[in-house]
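Researcher: Last one for today. Full complex below.
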Amino acid sequence: MIHFEKRLNPSRITTVVTPIIAVILTMIAGGIMFAALGKPPLEAIRIIFWDPLFDPNFASYSRPQLLVKAGPLILIAIGLSIGFKAGIWNIGAEGQYIMGAVFGAAVALAAYPADSVLLFPAMVVSGACGGWLWAMIPAILRTKFNTNEILVSLMLVYVAESILASVAQGLLKNPEGYGFPGSRNLQQYPSAFNAEVIANSGMHWGVISAFIAVICAYVMMTRHIRGFEVRLMGEAPKAARFSGTSTTRLVVFCLGISGALAGLAGMFEVSGPSGQITIDFNSGYGFTAIIVAFLGRLHPIGILLAGLLMALTYIGGELAQLMLGLPGASIQLFQGMLLLFLLATDIFTNYRIRIGGAK
Amino acid sequence: MKLKSILTSAIAAVALGTAAIAADIKVGFVYVGPVGDGGWTYEHDQGRKAVVEAFGDRVETIYQENVPEGADSERVMTQMALQGADLIFTTSFGYMDPTINVAKKFPNVKFEHATGYKRADNVSTYSARFYEGRAVQGHIAGKMTKTNKIGYIGSFPIPEVIRGINSAYIHAKKVNPDVEFNIVWAYTWFDPAKEADAANALIEQGCDVVLQHTDSTAPQAAAEKAGNVITFGQASDMAEFGPLPRVSSIIDDWGPYYVARTQAVLDGTWTSMDTWDGIGPGMVKIGEISSAVPADIKAEAEALRDALGSGEYHAFTGPLNKQDGTPWLAAGETADDGTLAGMNFYVEGLTGTIPQ
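Model: Here's the assembly. Have a good evening.
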């Protein structure tokens, strides 16, 4: 009989090795799928993982794009991971992302056509506030009425989407847009435009904020008392209460920080790569970030790598569709395989295989 | 002998291979939905296939489906251009600003943006006068309804959709003064679940005709289940739901346009322009009117179609007032394209307000 035996301490080596094994397993299973579709498997895998980084034709464009795509994922996932560590489940980052974008863009558009160096910082603050406020709704309902923050935060995504649709057609609509929905394009509004800090590097302020968030989260979780409280709450809630940690304060803190970071991500996106508030401005970053957080094992460095890996599969996947004519669904399947294998191999971090009879 | 045949086939294979690579131009298509949506994206992909058929090895086509509007679409277009595309069709309104951005970076690549209004030296726009098809639909709907209640599933309250509602209403009202329109906004172009919900809600309210400006066949399926409700195919023929509930359809036929524009690039005669074609040039087609429609109504509808096609009748011909009663078009006057392009008001008689 084969059975699993719990490790006393999670294995350090397997923590590092399992993601690599998972990527290899994905390549094998994905290769079989591509071959079954009648496409060259090795070439498909090379295009997905190698070409976006090193192809002479594309790499100079797609490397910066990797940062553009990974930036919001990392920024949101860092915020979520703090709550997840404490067992506080914010599933509604997509809604907070939308509200951050709406609040940030609203400041810019209300001041149109302002020419001030203070405008962009004001948008940053407003965007963070938008996300924070949206996350405070589940936080207050949870602490005052003990509602379930998973459901409330998720449902508020749909409310946020409706608000987005409404402002795109009303409040924030471009008055020179011939009646079409959608705001002015912030890319053509210099003092509000979140331009690349270094040209053609992909590094806009959102990407820089994501890196700063990774460092801050790392320091907080390892060095700061708040990080200790968060971990204690997740691993031993009773002990946390005995040690005087306030659940209320922690819920408000965790939801607040993840909401604010998601709001920031939305604001940086709308003022930069996206440029416009449109009816379907959000494209799922808030949900994908949940996957990124778990893929990164809720560890800041892990999330940084996971965000970049997700971005790579998106961009490489698009290239593979273009160059080989692979159907879009097969790329989604490929991404799904990667997640499945990553989570499945995770079991070896905490368990070891024993062959032979159980004791 | 054996070696020789192997060698010959190897040479043939190499020759074939180079022939495939040596297409004169590469044409890219960016799709907002899946190619199998049976509606909007499906018809654009049919257009792509028409290009393949027309030019064979001279043209290589590439496409990407399910591309979200916004920053993602900008990346997809850039990658197409980097890959050597000479002509790129971006087939959704939301690709407008990204198309303009990418076009700036690749002045030698030609772009064609569907349904937008921003052009540049290397960006053309094109759209179809779907409202002409709506006039025919309205006529059949007004004649066929027994409850005098017509349901309309709107996607987004943008001029194109509002134009369609007005056109259908004007022509339904003309043949049936008692007709009422119930409009539901789905806020999506393609979402079978939402569209089915909208259709069911309209049917419950007593509508026995359901018109849709969304792309899935879900409303057709809902009508089929309810029975005694008629529908029209949208963007694509949706003939599999005929003869009932689907009694006719508006078909977008992009093939001729795509072939013409590809030819222009091959010939080096491509220039930036704005195309807005209707039934006449064949960009909008009326699908076969099914046997469920009485012969006299069918003949009237076909006559209306032909009058619209030949240009002797305009779908917006006065006297027409706006919803608030203010005069819009005097008797015999027809609407100008500028007003139609930015249409953001209902005509008199429609109830409800356009969501703002």
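Chain A touches chain B at residues 57-58, 61-62, 65, 68-69, 165-166, 169-170, 178-182, 185, 187, 269, 273-276, 278-281, 283-284, 315, 318-319, 321-323, 325, 327-329 (CB under 8 Å). Chain A is about 70% helix and 5% strand.
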